[in-house]
Amino acid sequence: MGTLYLVRHGQASFGADDYDQLSARGHEQARRLGEYWRERGMVFDAVLVGSLRRHNQTLDGIGEGLEGLTAPVTTLPGLNEYDSHALLAAIHPQPLPRADTPELYRQHFRMLCDALAQWMAGVISPQGMPSWNDFSAGIQAALEQVRQQHAGHNVLLVSSGGPIATAIGQVLGTSPEATIALNMRLRNSAVTEFSISPKRLMLQTFNTLNHLDSEAHRSWVTHA
């Protein structure tokens, strides 16, 4: 039985004009994950990645840490994150202040959770975004590709919190509220594992940071 390793991207640039790029810490997290796997002799047979910049920068960092990633890479736009700005604008059309204090940060994510719930229920249709059903179908298609083509192999999937939480929700059959809660808990460069069989995927681990579990790296843990 193989394993699908779902990796959330390293720390991106929250609060910056362009969120879709890794911070210096994000690059370090990705390289460290690759180093951790290299130290344990990890070999991947296939790689799936979204098309966003932070996804590919994370994959590049993992490859650096592994000192070479030879598996074929498939880019799947269906693994891309939802547009948080469009979601927030759908429920709060007026510009929001930059989330540069703890309270504004918490307010940002409270509103995002509310917007996600409304999108998933079909109450809002954020501009430029697919419906929740279409977004979810893109994740399901990626999981089906893994199940049908890679049973018995190790597969790396690099994406974002929304798609990974959606994948977990599909495997476990969670409610929309639980899926949103899973999304909000995912940490940067965290690894979630599914075992792969031809019949189904099964959750083995969630949101682990074994590669940062040392005194030298514990301060590298981030959430956005």
UniProtKB/TrEMBL annotation:
Keywords from the named record: Hydrolase
Superkingdom of this protein's organism: Bacteria
GO molecular function, one term: hydrolase activity
InterPro entries: His_Pase_superF_clade-1 (IPR013078), His_PPase_superfam (IPR029033), Mito_Ser/Thr_phosphatase (IPR051021)
Binding site for substrate: R54
Active site: H9 (tele-phosphohistidine intermediate), E81 (proton donor/acceptor)
Name recorded for this polypeptide: Histidine phosphatase family protein
Annotated organism of origin: Comamonas antarctica
